[in-house]
């Protein structure tokens, strides 16, 4: 079955994420542009808010209950949810059931367990492209030297593996360089960067050093939160290396760079 057949009739909803909505809206627009080019019907449910990861990661499970309820209600009825974030996809896939169990035990929302179980699957962007649509060459063009940083949640929680690099290797004009120490954390980690600022900055500096050693013009990743952290270090070092989300590279064409 080809990509067009897999995409036909598939109703996908975009979960754009809080960080992208507030600071990097071009990433969400790139996802929509890319998927529509591949023939996928993609919507942006206006009722969506947060995936609840900030509350869960800091131990506020009761406060996460209404947020998870909003998520499952906003995306009900679609075939799949796609998000340009390994971190938020990981939250939906692995944390929502935990929050729902807590909600049932406390009586705050006894129906949330069933709602989470019935919710459409949430995919990180590269998973949707490779696993669901069966496509690696998305028709992109990006004539630059690029290195790829696998973010912690996409690597360790979701196990996206080589999907992003397979997509990048199929982009015309793109020259992909290996990133030394690629599997090491960048040091962002949400509130980790706030609570452990010195350690976070040191880890970011290590990652930036590896990026510069790769000789790449562009650092790409599947999470803008990590790119924001590493990009801040690279910018202060006046490295000349820019950061770009994976979705924006895959959405680029010769006609629309």
Automatic annotation (TrEMBL):
InterPro entries associated with the record: Cys_rich_dom (IPR004017)
Cysteine-rich domain residues: 12-89, 146-230
GO molecular function: oxidoreductase activity
GO cellular component: cytosol
A Pfam family per the record: CCG
Name of the protein in question: Lactate utilization protein A
